[in-house]
Each structure stands twice: as C-alpha cells, then as structure tokens.
Amino acid sequence: MTADAHAASARAAVQRSLAGQRRPLREYVFHLALLVSVALALAFLVALLSYVVVHGWDRLDANLFLNQPTALLRRIDEAGVQSAIFGTLWVISLTALFCIPTGVLAAIYLEEYGRREMWFNRLIELNIQNLAAVPSIVYGILALGLIARPPLNLGFTVITAALTLSLLVLPILIISSREAIRAVPNSIRDGSLALGATQWQTIRRQVLPVAVPGIATGTILALSRAIGEAAPLLLLGAVQFVTFNPSGPDSSYTVLPIQIFNLATRPQEGFRTLGWAAIIVLLAILLLMNSVAIAVRNRYQKRW
Amino acid sequence: MSVTTSTVPGAAPPRRSLGRSRPRYGEAAIKVVLVAAATLSVATTIAIVISLIPPTVRFFDKVDVGDFLGGTRWAALFKPPAYGVLPLVSGTLLVTAIAVAIAVPIGLATAVYLSEYAHPRVRRTIKPVLEVLAGIPTVVFGFFALYAITPLLQDWLPWEVEPRNALAPGLVMAVLLIPTVASLSEDAMAAVPMELRDGGYALGSSRMLVALRVVVPAAFSGIVAAVILAISRAIGETMIVYIGLGARPTFTANPLVEGETMAAYIAQAGSGDLPVSSFDYTTIFAVGTLLFAITFAMNAISIRLVRKYREVYE
User: Is the bond leading into A151 cis (omega within 30 degrees of zero)?
Assistant: First the structure.
C-alpha cells in the first residue's frame, strides 16, 4: 500500500466522518468476523467438553477408580484405570520434586545474578526459549537414549518418567518464574541492600516471598502440562495395560494419558466408553489445577 | 522528656570499614548452585544432541543420505525395508498445512479482537478460556479427532473417508494452535505504541483501518514469529496425529486416507521396545534428528523475530 493511497483513504474517511455519515458496512462486517472467530474457538471448547461428558458420564462409576485396566473385551465393562491414577500421582509428585527447585534456582540466577552482557547468560536464555518449543517426543528420545538405558540406566520406571517430564517442563517453569521475579520492583531490593543485607539475604527474605504467588501459578500450569503429556512416555515403557499400582520410584508404571491412548487403539465400544470416562477424570484434574492457578494469581497479584 | 541518656551529640559511632571485611563463602556457594541450575538447560540441549548422534551415525552407515531424504517409500520395520523419509514428511506437512491454514486466520482475528476491540473485562474472561483450551492434553484432542470428528466427516463428506485420515487431526490441531497464535500475536500488537494508533485516528481512520493498516503491519515480525512457532508445534505434535492419522506411511496429498508423520513414527517404533543393538532402533533416532533439526531451526527464527519487535518498540 503506497503512502498516496493511504492518504487518499484517510482523506475519504475524514470526509465521511465530517459529513456525519454512519460507519460503513465493512466496519460491521469486520467486527462481526472477529467475533465469529473468537466464538469458534470458544464453541469448540464447549463442544469438546460436552461431548466428553455425554459419552463418558455413565462409565464414571466406582469401578473406574477401584479396578485395574484390562486388555480383555469380556472384562472391559468392569475395568478401571486405578493403576493409571496412582501412576500419574507418583510421576507428578516426583516431577514436582525435581523441577520446582531447579526451575526456581535457575530463574533466580538469570534474573538476579546473570548480567546480560555476558555471552554465557545470553546463551542460557536463548537456549531456554528454544527448548520450550522443542517437540515433547524429542525429550522421549533423549530419555530413551540416555536415562532409561546406559549411562543412567534407570530402566522404564517412575523415576525415568519423572526426570523426563521435569526436563520437558523446566523451560516453561523457568520462564514463568523469571516473570514473577522480574515483577518485584527494584526499590525493594535497593532498600534491603542499603540496610546491609547481602544479595542472597535480599533475595531470600524480600524478593522470593513477594514473587511466590507468581511462581506458584507458573508451577501449577507447568505441572498440569506434565500431567497431560503422553508422547515421551510412549517411548519409556508406559504402554502396557499395567494392572498394579506403582510400589516406588523404581517401579514400572502407567499414567492416565497413556491409558487413554491405549483405549483409543482398541476399536470396540467398551474400550472407547472407558476412554471417555478416563478423559473426564484427566480433564477434571487439569481444570481444578487451572482454576487454582488463576485463583492464586487473582488473589495475591500485587500492583506496585 | 529530658535528655539524660548517654548519647552525646556529635560523637560518632565506632567506625567500621564498608569494604569486604570477611569473605562471604555462603554467598559464593549459593551462586555456584544457582549457576548449576541454570546451566542444566544448556546441558539438556547437549544431551539431546548426544543421544541423537551415535544411533543416527549408525543409521547413515547403512543408508545413503540421499536415499533417506529423497526416497518415497518408508517401510522401516518391514522386510524388505525401505528408508525413504518423504512419506513421513508429506504426512507431517499435510496435517500441518490443514491446521495452520485454519488456525492462523482465526488466531489472528482473535488477537486483533482482544488487542483492539475487546473491553478489558471481556478480555479478562476470554484469555483464561483460551489458556484452558491450550492446556487440554493432546491425547484428548486425538481421541476426539478419531471418535467424534472422523465419524462426522464420514457422514457429511461425499467422498470415502478412511477411519484414520489427515483431515480430522488437522482440524483438531487447528484448535490447539489457535491459543498459540492468538496469544503471541496479541503480545506483539500490545507492544505497538499508542502514538501510532492515535496518529491513525487523527487522520480520520476507522477502527478497522487502524487495526489492519497500522497495528498489524507494525506488529508484523511478532505475528510471523507466532505463525512460525505454530508451524513448529504442528510439525512436532505427536499424540493427535498418531491417534488420528494412523501408522501407515503414505506418500500422498490426499487428506482422506491414512498416513503417518515423523513424530508418530518415533512414537510407534519407540513404543515397540526394540533391542538397542538392532538396526530398527536407529531409525527412531534418524527420524528424530530430522524432526529436531527442523523444529530447532524454526524456533530459532521465531525467537529472533520476537527480539526484533521488542528492540524496535520497547
């Protein structure tokens, strides 16, 4: 578009508005198109949720929580996903244990210590942004090649899965924690330092307490990403119909998303219905976590 | 109050040096721990490369690079095997094209609406809803594509639609990408200075003209970054296409037949518990290297473009 044409259209618009004309039709059409676009995304969400609930509701019974998965069609109507629920709890607890301290410490370093002039810090920052967008299946390959097999040789266990998911969500956790730390005004740091506190004392007693709600929100969202992740765990031995709950970090396991995947590979109606019910459980957990995250954000958000 | 205390005005407290009187080993130790945590991310990238290279090298000892990149038949786990990656690439591109073609206009329109039209209260409602949409596990989307969308397509379309096809996962993946496109482009539009908009209005432009001729061009590099990131996500997405598109490599542009993507092949071969010493095992890593290289390059371009608009406006 040339400057001349732009000026002409602007002039025409000025003339129109000076003449007291109403907004041209295309303005309404454009506005309407935008609204339709937004509505489409929202409508899909509503359609998805209601479809899931309608198809899985009848199967959302005690069996789902009390019984174990099965590969047998004749027993599918009583089967459940208990081992997957326990597996998800095990894997996510360990993931939280690994990734929260690491992520927060890395964020503190990048925000409070790392000077941007140093190439090393810029490299870390760039690298984290890029890792956040690496496909999750690639983390599965990494874990298959180095964690489950030698050198770490941890096998297809809960701990391998937790380490893999920690690496996967760490970039997300670091990015959101950095934002929370950055939102703490410098005047607070300066005040603390001026009173003679060391840098670490300032961070521990002034910066972190204020940043905790933001960090918590980011952590919950990162963990909810880990709960729904299936692709890397496909490579890490979670695929069988595991019929026992994990007994410890070195136990074999399965998780909810993988069970849902398993149920999708069987064409019979019984497996499908159980799948919809398992999806309700998974979505309920995630919606709960999401609402907690949003509530924390709204409740503790400070304006400086 | 009478001044009977021992404070004598003018008498200075004993002087203490403000210099480093004693070394603070604790502070230094903490810094070492922090640096280690931050370095873990670089270590992760290096570990990905280390895990990929040796098996990939073993793969290319036996298979010619040209045959791999140019071959139109992929039958890695069959006898006789064929190692032409193009069917996996075409499957990936087909689903990606469908998803991106739908997600980009809708995502951009959503961003324009949120940034230029929506009342702050409306924006505060819609953004969390989009976050929820972005947070739905992809395995759920895949299940939905296979059991809800494909049957609809089979009913509505006049052509034969296979139970696993590219169209249904493409449509569902579009929904997954909308929040990505919308939120990143909205960030870019929010960074456009108000003065530019005011200039447009002062010249008599309408809201639509300001949005399309001022804000969108000014935020263009950020919008391109959002689109590239969406493409990269679509290329690397696994569960939707593994469930919805299937596991039969097909070199075709027909969106109604079963196919397979690069990521889905990795999932398929990787979940088979292949022996480490087998040649089949190395195929996972060869395809993985290609996938990692493509997405890593696209992410790098996207990050660079975001930097660009940040530098211009912030």
Answer: yes
Q: Considering all CA atoms of chain A, what is the largest pairwise distance in Å, rounded to the nearest integer?
A: 79
CATH code for residues B86-313:
1.10.3720.10
Taking only residues 252 to 291 of chain B, the set having a beta carbon closer than 8 angstroms to any beta carbon of chain A reads: 263, 266-267, 270-271, 273, 276, 284-285, 288, 291
Dist. CA A83–CA A80, nearest whole Å = 8
Distance from CA of A66 to the nearest CA of B (A): 22
Domains in chain A, start-ordered, CATH in brackets? 73-300 (1.10.3720.10)
Whole-structure pTM value: 0.89
Position B2 scores a pLDDT of 45
Taking the CA of residue A91 and the nearest CA in chain B, the distance in Å comes to: 16
DSSP assignment of A138-192: HHHHHIIIIISSTTT---SSHHHHHHHHHHHHHHHHHHHHHHHHHTS-HHHHHHH
- The token duo for B98 is 């469908």
Structure tokens at B265: 């092949």
- For A158-177, the pLDDT digits (tens) are 999 999 999 999 999 999 99
pLDDT of residue A237: 82
Any A CB within 8 A of B27 CB:
yes
Contact present, A261 and B146 (Cβ < 8 Å): no
Q: Is B165 on the interface with A (CB under 8 A)?
A: no
Distance CA B297, CA B236 (A): 13
> Alpha carbon B115 to chain centroid distance?
22
A110 contacts on B by Cβ (under 8 Å)? 38
A188 vs A191: CA distance, rounded Å: 5
Ranges in chain B, pLDDT < 70 = 1-22, 314
Query: What per-residue confidence (pLDDT) applies to B118?
Result: 92
- Taking alpha carbons only, the member of A94, A86, A117, A122 closest to residue A246 is A86
Contacts of A86 (CB under 8 A, 6+ apart): A245, A246
**Dihedral sign (CA B309, A133, B138, A94):** negative
pLDDT at A1 over 70: no
The beta-carbon neighbor of A130 closest among B38, B140, B296 is B296
From residue A92, give the alpha-carbon distance in Å to each of A285, B1, B191, B228, B294. Answer: 12, 64, 36, 31, 30
* B41 close contact with A: CB closer than 8 A: yes
Q: For residues B168 and A179, what is the distance between their CA atoms, to the nearest angstrom?
A: 37
What is the predicted ipTM?
Answer: 0.88
Return d(Cα A142, Cα B55) in angstroms, integer.
Answer: 12
User: Token pair for residue B190?
Assistant: 């929010």
Please name the residues in contact with A50: beta carbons below 8 A apart, sequence gap of 6 or more.
Answer: none
> For residue B127, how many C-alpha atoms fall within 13 Å in the half-sphere facing its CB?
15
Q: In chain B, what residues touch A15 (CB-CB under 8 Å)? A: 204
Mean pLDDT, chain A, integer: 89
CA distance, residue A115 to nearest chain B CA (Å): 12
Q: What is the pLDDT of residues A248-302, one digit of tens each?
A: 888 889 999 999 999 998 888 889 999 999 999 999 999 999 888 888 888 877 6
Domain ranges for chain B: 86-313
Are B87 and B251 spatial neighbours (Cβ–Cβ below 8 Å)? yes
- pLDDT tens digit sequence for A176-212: 999 999 999 999 999 999 999 999 999 999 999 999 9
- Min Cα distance A295 → chain B (Å) is 11
